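U., I forgot to send this yesterday:
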Amino acid sequence: MALTKRQKQVLDFISMFIERNGYSPSYEELATGLGLASLATVHKHIQALETKQYLNRSFNHSRSLEVTRKYFDEQRLYRSGSEPRSEVPLLGRIAAGAPVEAIAGQDTLAFADFAGDPNTFALQVRGDSMIEDHICDGDYVLIEKTAHAQNGEVVVALVDGTETTLKRFYEEPEFVRLQPANSAMEPIRVPKAAVQIQGRLIAVLRKYK
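Result:
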């Protein structure tokens, strides 16, 4: 499982603290050093890193955090350049209308922000029912798992337990309307009990070559 940007920061901080001091930081030192709002937030990150097998922790002792070999192995791969990049430079914004000045900065776009969440999955689009929302045949969509949706959200809906479709969701008094973004197509209206929401759209990816 990939690390989120914040989890990587927590792990790097713990590793450097142990290297400098010979013992692991307390939760208070972690919160202060990383600017985290509460000890509960620290605890949440520690639990996530344990689950992903980057940390070991003894429950009977203070300052008992231990960085696992998995972290150091991945660091070596990263430094050697053999690990696939999970970030690309974010060089600014580009106008799709009138030209604007493009200014390069130091920001990066971290794909772990999208893919690091275990509740995120990808699907490849087939068909043209969402082309007016700029979702085209062959595109890849990133979906956040959820069983609920707000009106107007683009969702993955399972209809009658057999067919899934990507449409905009609208709840009506007696039916659910699954609205295509294609003026040549009619909306799908089905009883509420026949529709199961499986996720909502969070990103669209398109590969040109």
